[in-house]
Write a structure and sequence with these properties.
Elements (H helix, E strand, L loop, with lengths): L1 H12 L12 H11 L1 H19 L7 E7 L2 E4 L3 E4 L2 E12 H68 L5 H35 L27 H11 L1 H21 L5 E11 L9 E8 L6 H68 L6 H32 L7
Antiparallel strand pairs: 1-4, 2-3, 4-5, 5-6
Helix pairs in contact: 1-3, 2-4, 3-4, 4-5, 4-7, 4-9, 6-8, 7-8, 8-9
Amino acid sequence: MKSLLIIWLFLSFSTQALELPNPLTLKRTLELATTQNLEQQQLSINIALDKIELESYQDGYKTTVDLDLQLARRDNEKLGHTDYSHAFIKINKVLYDQNVEINQNAAKSNVKNTEFALQQFKIDKTTQVMQAFFNVILADMRHETVLERLAISAIRANRIQDNFDVQDASEVELLEKQTLTQFDVVKRIEAEAAQITTRAKLAQLLNMTYENRPDDLVKPDLTHFFKKELDEFEIWQKKIQLSNLELGELKRMLANLKQQRNLEKNNKEIVISSNIRLGGQSYDSSKNGNWRAGFNFVMPFGQSRRQKKKTSELLVKIKQQQLRIEQRAQALNQQALSLWLKLKTLKQRHQALTTELDYRDLYLELARANYEMEIKSDIGNAMGNLTDTEWKLTKNEFDFVIVYTQLQQLAGEDYAL
């Protein structure tokens, strides 16, 4: 009943809608992803169901009480028809069943497997939500850049139109500028579409309707990630071998398989039970009293074919699991190396883009000064290049944080933004 109540609470919670903060921070977004995600709730329900199945193994140890009533007569050659009725209350309880203990141990392992699946899901969900959150901010920044370029194109097209009206510009020049403006309009429409689709994706990950999609997002300050030195790869490699959650789970499963095989090898299929019978009977009453109690011990001779097959299968599974651990360890090592090398590249690119941003900012100041002094200036391009570099720098920061978080996850480390 308790487990069923838990399932009902999960199902009812999925229909509730939490109020979305505005503006929305990354930290709050990750919290909402944890509480609202439907797939996570489904895994939690699966855990509850596995625990119900685990509890069911205890049913074999529950005391059973039966009422046995019989009204009958029996034909006897010497005595004729005799009363053959009885009334009994029978109480039985299994004290120990070796097969139940073995199956219960396997069911406990299944619960652990599902719990790990939930834990792994939360880890994967973290980077998905982070990326979706970052994509919204990048879409807004790209939209800002596109608007700036469109404004510049429109100004240039209007100037050419004015010159064309006084026959100071050709029709070819006018059509050229108008064409560029129209293409910038297309880019604006694409940028607006990206704003909508990225918000819709984030809303989906947060289990929210499209109408309740996030609006204003706070750009997180991630500069502290670039102030610390990146550990050498050998350090990360050791961390992964010692603390990787997936490797730890695979090793736990291997230990459980070995335990299961030992249990099956030593399984004598012993069953110990107790019984009590209370009541009376109309026949043989002089030989039987009103109660009877006893213990039963059952153990088949030899090992059954089922047990032999089971131990052989478990031996093969143990070898498979050992191979799986070795293969996964190698794959994780390659994955970690790829992430680490990517981090080094992203960190160096961060320095390059920071320098470029300083250059774009100074160049814009120069272009603005020339414009104010009515000297020929490309202030429009300078503004567009500055915002474009800001976008590239921000994207590089986001990419670095995602990759760094993934590397921390592989190492089984806690990560904080």
